[in-house]
Amino acid sequence: MQTVNDQQQKDGVELIQQIANLHGQLVESHDFAQALQGIRLLQDKVVPGAFSSEALEEFENDYRLMADFMLKGFKDPQRNALYGRLVRGMSSLLRNMEVEVERKYDPFFSPLVRLTASTKLDPTGIEQKLVKHVQDVAMLSLDEEQVRQQRSKELYEAHFNFMRNLFNAIVVSCQWNADMAHDMARLLSSPTIDAMDALTLVSAITMATLNVPDPQKAIALTEVFSLADDEAIRQRALVGWVFAVGNDGFALFPEVGERVADLLAKPEVRKEVLQLQKQVVLCQNAARDQETLRNDIMPNIMKNQNFEVSRFGIKEKEEDPMMDILHPDDDDRKMEELEASFQKISDMQKRGADIYFGGFSHMKRFSFFYTLCNWFTPFYTEHPQLQHLTQGLLQSNFIKQLMLHGPFCDSDKYSFTLGVSSVFSSLPESLRNMMEQGELQSGMPEGDTPQGKAYIRRKYLQDLYRFAMLNDGRKRFANPFDENHVFLSAPIFTHAMADEARNMQLFLLKQKKFALLSALLQAYYDAQNADDLRMEGCVALHFKQYAKAEKACRQLLRMQPDDEQAIRSLAQACFHQAHFEEAAKHYRAMLALHPDNRNCALYLSVSLLNCGKADEARQMLFKLHYEHPDDLNVKRALAWAELWMKNTQQAYSIYTTLLASDKRVATDSVNAAYCCWFEGRIDEAVRLMAGGMAAYKSAPRQTLTVREQLAADGALLDRYEVDEADRKIMADLVERHREQ
Question: Which of 266-280, 349-363, 603-617, 618-632 is most confident?
Fold first, then answer.
């Protein structure tokens, strides 16, 4: 059997990158002759036999005829259309070249090719096999029990082998034509084939488009979405075509854009696409959700369980009779804590969290997952690669309930079944009996209706997410869960989904996904839209682009003079640019509207302080400190006011309190150093200043040198009449102290 050596793999990777670059140039320039020249250069580098040059020669001949016709001075009204057809043909040729190189020289794909050597992508032949399988399974009920079991095993094994090879063949298939796409869409939408087969093959088409974009495969997925009656098939197709066009807008193929535009003209489709985008973002939060489970919830659950894991297996905990006497309410307390923990998990699920990813991410190394299609095959107990498991478990009511109503995605159902099977015999007999009789429930209700669109889509997204994060071949495919990518920002969506995009922006703001929010805002930005201006101000403030935030807020206030968010954001932007007089004006306006807003009062007092209105600022801060004695930010502002008023002892007293807190910040140490410096306690000032500078070093976003710090506080030093020589000597003393 031929294998791919390291050099061939390296050559293949390099060639694929060159092909991709050439395709990108073609999409950008639409220059057929330039692409033709590029391919000829690649042919000199490629390993012989990687792809056929017949199609290339045909395109070259067509182009030469067109050029000759033009050279003779003839005008052809169809020339532009014919040229566009050549450019699209060149695009398909480049994509096919990419697939062929993968098939021959990628160690992930080349084994799939060998397995599918005899598999033909003939929709008619495929349909016959799939329909026959449905008929054969239906006929099993006529056989006797013993014959039925053996016959069933043979049927499912043969069908699995066919589906595995067909799945692989689709993934590594070249570009489809329109007839192939239409026929496959009709087949996968047909009620005459098993829905599980259709689901698996929809995933195969999706993975093919995430490997090498194909406009006709994308169109096939849109047709399945439109034609299928089964909601699970529709949702897989929706995910497929959205991911396909979100990864590559197919700018050279207007038929894709037209097809997507027709779908997005329907409000219900736009709603589903928006929900899908939100669910993708929630999938991206899996790591954060696992931290919450691991640190805040699971320890409490494990503490209150009645089973324990030992080196001899899992067993029930022995009850201590003294506990009933000493702690009669302990059982009730444990049950309440357990229920509260499960309620937290349930609430996370209702919000769309992928709570099982962390646990099952360690269970994808079973040999079962070496088969590509198994990552996307709906769970069924007849799966041939499960038949080696303990039949008592496989045929138990627990597994049957798991298959129908379990809270896991299909990939995790397989992991769970494989994992439990390995310890099934060591489980306590009472637990095994409960599982076999179906008395053991998950105890974790779902947030969506089990047959609802959002539920179906979420479970499938979790299957895809596990593949994208855990499969060894994941880097060969575009990752739709890339945390730097939001598919709604793709140009193919922007013409129709502006309202949905602004809804998504609010969702991203709530999720604190500012990078994605910025990308989405830029894709749909309208300088005359108040919502966009408001969001631009918010995003610019987050990224500390204060001048940009100020500009957006001023423009919004010209449109809506009473917009509170714009006033608040403008005040912040002015404050951070040291425009303290204007900041004070806007904070005063906000405080008039919301007299109890502590932050507004605090920022107003600091702004007044920096405007030279120290007496007014100090009075406000005294009031705030009286009302909120534990607020450290109020203490900081009051200490700065005292320092500015030359009350160094009072300021130092407050800074000493701040430095004793575990929430101290670098400026507390720096400002305490000023108090000592101005009182002549230079040694202590140097030590405190050095400590503040060290704290800055541990927080890279706030890094300052001693000289930069002194320059930033120049107004304060001027107030205390610290001359230039003293400033430079202090900087030197602090630096020498830090070096010691």
Answer: 266-280
Whole-number pLDDT of residue 1: 44
Phi, psi (rounded to 5 degrees) for 449: -60, 130
Cα angle 195, 199, 205; round to 5: 140
Alpha carbons within 13 angstroms on the beta-carbon side of residue 16 total 18
CB 314 within 8 A of CB 428: yes
pLDDT tier at 439, thresholds 50, 70, 90: low
Q: Beta 307-310 vs 313-316: how paired, if at all?
A: antiparallel
| CB-CB neighbours of 447 under 10 Å | 17
Directed axis angle between helix 195-211 and helix 215-227, to 10°?
150
Average pLDDT over residues 569-587: 95
Vertex 552, ends 549 and 556: CA angle to 5°?
135
CA–CA distance, 723 with 286 (Å, rounded to integer): 56
What DSSP string runs through 565-627?
HHHHHHHHHHHHTT-HHHHHHHHHHHHHH-TT-HHHHHHHHHHHHHTT-HHHHHHHHHHHHHH
300 has pLDDT over 70: no
Helix axes 632-644, 648-659, angle to 10 degrees: 150
Report the pLDDT averaged over residues 386-411: 83
Question: The whole model's pTM is what?
Answer: 0.85
pLDDT attached to residue 358 = 82
Query: What average pLDDT score do residues 473-482 get?
Result: 95
What span, in angstroms and rounded, lies between the C-alpha atoms of 113 and 105?
A: 11
- What pLDDT, on the 0 to 100 scale, is given for residue 448? 53
One-letter amino acid identity for 114?
Answer: R
DSSP class of residue 476?
A: G
Name the token pair of 420. Answer: 């439990």
DSSP string covering 76-118, please? -TTHHHHHHHHHHHHHHHHHHHHHHHHHHH-TTTHHHHHHTTT
- Name the helix (H) or strand (E) containing 41: helix 32-45
